[in-house]
Specification:
The protein is mainly α. Helix content is about 75%, strand content about 0%.
């Protein structure tokens, strides 16, 4: 095994070494490929399952810092082992299945919620040569697999034989399914700019990060992805003050923990997908020559996105269900459609003008987004002015009605017949 290759591209070097080892054992190339594929799946799944142990500790510490609290600091240095202690506690807790629950669906739901998130990582490019599998419909695959998480929540709430859990599952339809519409529309923008749905091709097309050419689409994608996770301010799936605990109220032990493993991993996946689609993914100085550097760039960008998710959880209150749906259907969906139209028209005009410089193209598309933002601001300002005028007119009308009623009572007072 070449030491230089092992340092710069360890995954490829280890794969070649294992392939050579299997070949020396007399295995056919097809059988060796199957074994290597299974090993790759096990590695990605294992890393994805271990990562939440660190993410939970990281989020606890960051949130504690923001809220002027100490956070976990007793179990292990700086509380690093606190999450492991919590996992052990969940593993030894009693496993309860409610009377009347659909046992098969009830037990399958937490497993499916974790599988849905881990499956997304199969197509995410970690570096130039480090991809689980390359799909020419990778963006479509992400949306399809992500829907399994919504199905898992509905299964958990429906099968628990609990009215509060069922109410939490009903909110899934109102929230997660609704927010998939602007999520999918915003996902089309990097696909249009890269002319491909393959995630690695999208990353390679970002000579200039797509967040420069499509900042509004990036913002819509990030906000709707947070809503898909069910994080604050969109955490109405749980809403402890309203429906006790939400869809997972009847779950105990590690089944309860698996829902939260899926949530924390999905929250980090939001940062990873934002990095891939809009922040250049693994691209950076020297990433092509040394893929291990690309992994570092990718993880830094993913953690930057995850930090914003944590910041939103710490700083924003939970919004009402009607406000949340109004935000989706009355604002985000029309805005996402407008972004697609403006991006397609702007990119077509730039192409017809013969502009091939990536920076010039991105700069002009950024100006197109500024124009769209100005139009949106004008529309929202006009609507706000009309609403204030209507409220003022209504208050004036109510005031005049109150004065007229008081005057009527005053005139009737001296002439009113005494009551007997």
């Amino acid at each position: 095994m070449d030491v230089g290759t092992l340092i710069s591209n360890p995954v490829v070097a280890i794969r070649e070494w294992l392939a050579q080892l299997l070949s020396n054992l007399g295995l056919a190339p097809q059988a060796a490929d199957v074994i290597l594929m299974i090993l790759g799946i096990l590695v990605i799944a294992s890393v994805s399952l271990i990562l939440p142990l660190f993410l939970i500790w990281f989020e606890r510490r960051v949130v504690a810092r923001m809220q002027d609290r100490i956070g976990p600091n007793r179990v292990g240095p700086q509380g690093l082992l606190q999450t492991i202690a919590d996992a052990v506690k969940l593993l030894i807790k009693e496993d309860i299945t409610p009377i009347g629950a659909d046992k098969l669906v009830y037990n399958l739901a937490p497993i499916l919620s974790v599988i849905a998130v881990i499956s997304m990582w199969a197509v995410i490019p970690y570096a130039a040569t480090m991809v689980g599998t390359t799909l020419n419909v990778g963006a479509l695959y992400l949306v399809s697999v992500g829907s399994l998480g919504t199905l898992a929540i509905m299964m958990g709430g429906w099968s628990s034989n609990n009215k509060y859990a069922l109410l939490g599952a009903f909110r899934t339809v109102a929230q997660l399914v609704s927010y998939e519409a602007p999520l999918l529309l915003s996902l089309l923008v990097p696909v249009i700019l890269a002319r491909s749905m393959d995630l690695n091709t999208i990353v390679r097309a970002q000579n200039v990060w797509f967040i420069v050419a499509a900042p509004i689409a990036a913002l819509i994608f990030f906000v709707t992805s947070v809503a898909e996770v069910g994080r604050t301010p969109f955490d109405l799936l749980e809403a402890e003050s309203e429906i006790v605990a939400g869809f997972h109220i009847e779950y105990t032990g590690m089944k309860f923990g698996m829902f939260f493993v899926a949530e924390f991993l999905h929250a980090f996946t939001v940062g990873a997908l934002t990095a891939v689609l809009f922040l250049g993914g693994w691209r950076g100085p020297g990433a092509e020559q040394a893929p291990i550097l690309g992994v570092g760039y990718f993880m830094l960008k993913a953690f930057a996105g995850y930090f914003v998710v944590i910041l939103m959880r710490s700083a924003l209150p939970r919004i009402r269900i009607d406000h949340m749906l109004d935000l989706n259907w009355k604002f985000l969906v029309p805005l996402a459609l407008a972004v697609i139209v403006f991006t397609v028209l702007g990119d077509k005009v730039i192409g017809e003008a013969g502009i091939t410089s990536p920076w010039a193209r991105s700069g002009l598309l950024f100006l197109v987004n500024l124009v769209l933002a100005g139009l949106v601001y004008a529309v929202l300002s006009g609507a706000a002015r009309r609403q204030r005028a209507e409220e003022a007119a209504g208050q004036a009308h109510d005031g005049q009605g109150a004065l007229a009623e008081a005057a009527a009572h005053g005139e009737a007072g001296p002439h009113a017949a005494p009551a007997h």
